[in-house]
Amino acid sequence: MTKYKFILSGGGTGGHIYPAIAIANELKLQFPDAEFLFVGAKDKMEMQKVPQAGYEIKGLWIAGLQRKLTLQNLMFPLKLASSLLESKRIIKKFKPNVVIGTGGFASGPLLQAAGSTGIPTVVQEQNSYPGITNKLLSKKANSICVAYENLERFFPKEKIVLTGNPVRQDLIDIESKRDEAIAFYDLDPNKKTLLVLGGSLGARRINQLIEKELQNFLSQNVQVIWQCGKLYFEDYKKYNQPNVKVVDFIERMDFVYAASDVIISRAGASSVSELCIVGKPVIFIPSPNVAEDHQTKNAQAIVDAKGAILLKESELDSQFSIVFEALLKDSGKQKQLSDNIEKLAKPRATQDIVAEIVKLIR
Question: Residues forming the annotated binding site for UDP-N-acetyl-alpha-D-glucosamine?
Answer without folding.
Answer: 13-15, 127, 168, 200, 250, 295
